[in-house]
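It would be a great kindness if you could assist me with a short task in structural biology. The matter concerns a single protein, recorded as an amino acid sequence and a row of backbone structure tokens. The record follows directly beneath this note:
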Amino acid sequence: MTVSIAFFSGTGNTRHVAEQFAREIRARNHAVHVLEIGPNVKDGPIVGDLLILCFPVHAGNAPRPVLDWIAGQRGRSGLPTAVFSVSAGGTVIPNVASRVWVKRRLAHKGYEVVSEGMIVMPSNWIIPTKPAVANALLLALPHKVAFFTQQVLAGGGHRDCPGIGHRVLSALGRVEHAGARWFGQRIEVRTHCVGCGWCASHCPTGNIRMVEQRPRFGGRCAACLRCVYGCPQNALSPGMARFVVLAGGYDLQRLLQTRTNPTERDLNRESAGVVWIGVRRYLREAGRRC
């Protein structure tokens, strides 16, 4: 079997998930074709016998580039497809219906969604995930991916049918697509920018270009925060909605390099509260006591 894995990622969480799926599928002796959704990807039919689509949840929905990518596909009638959304909160409001619009777009193109699920990764916006919980999520990821992979390759899996209230929330969340454009156009460049061009070369939507050694932002921003967190000089900051950016930044590679096995005491303490209900449920399902 040949499996295509398509993903969109901002700060690296969904990329890491897609890479984990690729490793797991290769370990089961199947061929894998990995495709990152971005400005340099040519539209065309998906190759292989199965498609796995991964994307981060933005405002209870898929980011605009994911929906645009599906719209540009030629389609593969009846191609089995699995859809996995990646969030920091798990399957809670407003994330419950985060895959609805993606599934509708895929069905319109002829794809057959046979499985779906939510994968939880450390938070990269507003509220940071505390160390013990972040470590637990990263340690749980291979087990979650192995479980989902086994289901998908066997031709089975889980399908959600969110209620009307959740679908309405997801539809309202699409307002964020317009908000993301405004967010990007208002990113401020600080005086210590050295004009290295890192942001322009790494933007996943091709929204940044260099003009006289200064980044200029267009109207295709997805508010993924890659440029803000990744700037080598820390020279970019939001001109609006500053509260979404974590004060200490977000560096997934640093988290991966420093991960440890958290104690149950720390895990229970750091995951307390209503905000982390979905995370606690997710970790319990993954075999972590929380």
The chain has two domains: 2-171, 173-252. The chain has eleven helices and nine strands. The chain has a mean pLDDT of 93.
